[in-house]
Amino acid sequence: MRFIAAFMVLICHIGIVLVPSVQKPWLNWTEPYVYALGPTGVVFFFVLSGFVLTWSARPGDTSRLFWRRRLVKVYPNHLVTLGAAVVLMLVANNAVTTANTLPTLFLVQSWIPDQEVVLNYTSNAPTWSLACELLFYLAFPALLPLLRKIRVERLWLWLGGVALLICTLPFVALLLPDEPMMTNTDVPWWPLWFTYYFPVSRMLEFMLGMLTAQIVLSGRWIGLPLVPAMLLAGASFVVTAGFLPEMYSQASAIALFLALLIAAGATADVRGRPSFFRKRTMIFLGEISFALYMVHWLVILYGPMQMTKADGWSGHSTVSQALLDASLTVVITLLLAWLLYRLVERPAVRRWSRPATRGRSPAADVGAGPAAELHGER
């Protein structure tokens, strides 16, 4: 499932460039759905983070060890890809400034409502989501004891309340200024930043995942099978992307259905039921999904599609050329993701995820617990 969510983000960002470039009227109907793929994938990951961390939490774990594991998982890939982004920016004569590098280095860019800081298109812009994840990780050790104090018969009530709060965010955003517009769009920046990029707003999706995991762990799951859960999530995507205002396709309306899908998938996994998602290839692709997320934007910018060129957003192209560029982009992204995972992410996790103890290899702790199978969280 992680790979599918990451691949949705990749296809979204490819489509943002190629659909306007091709300029074929018969493609216009696809735009809302292509553009909604990325935000939906991000919602999935935010909900999944809350679910998996709650699912895998064990007595005796300390905040310091938890934060260490999370930073080791995130920062090596981030530093390598940010370094690559700076080099590519310099080679391509794109401006490297304090605004588009320093906040990103420390993963605080999403707290600063400035487009150059949050979304510099010539750098590794998707790392804004890591700034949200860092808030989730910092808050998790404090949130978990509070979650466990909720009476089990009230868990579904809390879940519904958080889902409702998520759906109210676009209405709150209406109170914010409608100028300026987001670059290359007609979407007002301030409401979009508040609903989509602001870490406190996205914390609600993480909490939704935590509540969903607690419902499953406490035996209060409704028993929704995986296939119906997938159909519900798919239907909610079609409705959200195709019929609701754009602000809802960015985050809100689909979060609850993705939480149900994750719970159904986890339940099926624990029971050992046959599933496409349990295939060896899908597990491997899931393992490299974070690396895929970290490299894909740089491939789109500086690879076959050459988005950083002057005509990168609007240059005319044939459908066949667009498909060739997209295919090459996917292949290169998968190859670089595998290399980043094998050479950076996995060695870093094995070496530094836990303090070394005498007579015990750091690698012995990697993958321990049910979360290793479910999400690769360590």
TrEMBL record:
Signal peptide extent: none
Domain named Acyltransferase: residues: 1-342
GO BP term, pick one: lipopolysaccharide biosynthetic process
Annotated segments matching region Disordered: 357-378
One Gene Ontology term, aspect cellular component: membrane
InterPro entries in UniProt: Acyl_transf_3_dom (IPR002656), Acyltransferase_3 (IPR050879)
Record keywords, A-Z: Acyltransferase, Membrane, Transferase, Transmembrane, Transmembrane helix
GO molecular function: acyltransferase activity, transferring groups other than amino-acyl groups
The organism's place on the tree of life at top rank: Bacteria
Stretches that traverse the bilayer: 33-53, 74-96, 128-148, 155-176, 196-217, 224-244, 250-270, 282-302, 322-344
Coiled coil: none
Cross-referenced PANTHER family: ACETYLTRANSFERASE (PTHR23028), ACYL_TRANSF_3 DOMAIN-CONTAINING PROTEIN (PTHR23028:SF53)
Protein name: Mycarose O-acyltransferase
